[in-house]
Amino acid sequence: MIQGLRKQSPQAQQLMLERYGNDVFALVSRMVPQMEDAEEVYQDVMLKVFSNIEMYDEGKSSLKTWISRIAYNESITFLRHKRPLKIYIDDYEEEVEALSETEVEEAFGHPNPETVQLIRAALKHLPPDEKAIITMFYYEEMSLKEIAFVTESIPTTIASKLSRTRKKLCGIIKKLQS
Question: Which residues contact 75 (CB under 8 A, 6 or more apart)?
Fold first, then answer.
């Protein structure tokens, strides 16, 4: 497939879209909340993948991870240029710091349907980069190493951000419940 993509084969492009298109669109649409905007970003991602396939290095990542990196970067770029009207919940740092890992594990370990709804509602209050990390880790089931590649970071930094964002989500959930 990769050889076909490099030759700009329509069949290889179609195969790539069938294989990775839904996952890429899911990642983009979780980061970019408006459907029309998500569709536009998704199209930009696919055009960038097709036009930059020569830059893909099989030794550094899987094709899916490389495409996810492009999707992440395009989504973040889009959101930076579009002034968000949403205000993110950042004014309860003390509550977040006070949460124990046990409380966080209880919320994320085996969530019930009510908790899943609360998590989805809470995700809307996160900045795009934090929402992306949660999305890649829980929805896309990417490893810390893969997320680090996508975000151009290192796994230990991603682990710290993930831990902090999980605590933040718990804090948001507590606020939503009160």
Answer: 27, 28, 31, 32, 41, 128, 132
Contacts of 7 by beta carbon, 8 Å cutoff, 6+ apart: none
The yes or no reply on domain 2-81 and CATH 1.10.1740.10 is yes
Q: Domain 93-177: which CATH class?
A: mainly alpha
Distances, alpha carbon 48 to alpha carbons 55, 56, 75, 129, 137, in Å: 11, 11, 13, 20, 24
| DSSP helix/strand/coil, 87 | coil
* pLDDT tens digits along 128-160: 888 888 888 887 888 999 999 999 999 999 999
Tell me the pLDDT tens digit for each residue of 85-122: 444 445 445 555 555 556 555 556 555 666 667 777 77
| Helix/strand/coil percent split, the chain, to 5 | 75, 0, 25
What are the distances in angstroms from CA 171 to CA 29, 87, 95? 24, 16, 6
Side-chain-side CA neighbours of 82 within 13 Å: the count stands at: 17
- Rounded Cα gap, residues 178 and 174, in angstroms: 6
Q: Which two tokens stand for residue 109?
A: 């370990």
pTM here? Answer: 0.69
